Amino acid sequence: MPLCPTYLILPVALPRARVLRTLVLLTLASLTWGCGTASQDLTSRVLSDTISVRIVPGPTPAALRVVTEQTSVPLLSGSTEAELRIRAADSTVMRYPLAFASMGAPGRTETLTTMITADIPAELAANALEMSIRATADSKERIFSVRAQVDTAALELTPSMTKQSDETYQFLLRATRRRIIPGEYFPSSEQLRIAIYNGKGASVWSSNDGMAFLTVVMPVEPALQGASHLYTLDWNGMSSQGARLPSGRYRVQLTLPVRPAPYSCFLDVVLP
């Protein structure tokens, strides 16, 4: 970048060292006040950061859906429009508009959860070299790199736990159908399996310890794409040895023992 011109009128009688020192100081001042303005504007328009996204099955078999959910809305706050950019293997860049679906106004800071989605071809997502998100707010462009996590399970699992009394709890697992897998089934009457691990990773309780389930083929719910089904299981707060678990943090694994492939997820809980 060329330097901004600086015109100096210096007394001839000044010592040469002083003249040179003055010239350097004035040149630096000129760069700071003049030429530095363009760099500051560029920095304010383009911010480098990373957004984590999930890639899940889309509305059609040949499409995937890119989902980014910002719970605190720090990155896309104030954005009125955004697009996903994908650089393919041949270096061409494909652009897909991102659709806001949020509680409150899209992109506003008071929005509790901002979810932004885009549907893209599955083949393109599989062979993408890189992804980025361009967001526009107040006529300023912000560009974020994307860290993608592929999650193409046929069921989307949402785990939770509620306290029913001072001594009993209930585990809940909401399953939402993303796509249909022909021929999957429960091989027994066990539909929800719970395993609890302590802070050291040791198993302290499992719902199938010592259990004998009926051998019966049962369908996997929900059966329809887009539908949801809630699986529940009660727990008395005891370990496998019959002692009450002490207060602390535990990791819970919730599993639907489905065939040909089970579905599983984790939930971190704190017992009082």
Low-confidence stretches: 1-17, 19-47, 105-112
Distance between the termini: 63 Å
Estimate the helix proportion, in percent. Answer: 10-25%
Overall mean confidence score, pLDDT: 77
Q: Rg to the nearest angstrom?
A: 29 Å
**Which structural class is indicated by helix and strand composition?**
mainly beta
Walk me through what this model shows.
With 272 residues, this protein is mainly beta. The protein has 2 domains: 50-150, Sandwich (Immunoglobulin-like), CATH 2.60.40; 155-271, Immunoglobulin-like, CATH 2.60.40.2360. It has helices at 16-45, 122-126, and strands at 50-57, 63-70, 81-87, 93-97, 99-102, 114-121, 130-137, 140-150, 155-163, 169-177, 193-197, 203-206, 228-235, 248-256, 263-271. The strands form 3 sheets. The protein has an 8-stranded mixed β-sheet with strand order 4-3-7-8-1-2-6-5. Strands 12-11-14-15 form a 4-stranded antiparallel β-sheet, with no helix packed on it. Strands 9-10-13 form a 3-stranded antiparallel β-sheet, with no helix packed on it. The protein is globular and about 60 Å long. The model is unreliable at 1-17, 19-47 and 105-112 (pLDDT under 50).
List the helices and strands and how they pair.
Layout: H1 16-45, E1 50-57, E2 63-70, E3 81-87, E4 93-97, E5 99-102, E6 114-121, H2 122-126, E7 130-137, E8 140-150, E9 155-163, E10 169-177, E11 193-197, E12 203-206, E13 228-235, E14 248-256, E15 263-271
Parallel strand pairs: 1-8
Antiparallel strand pairs: 1-2, 2-6, 3-4, 3-7, 5-6, 7-8, 9-10, 10-13, 11-12, 11-14, 14-15
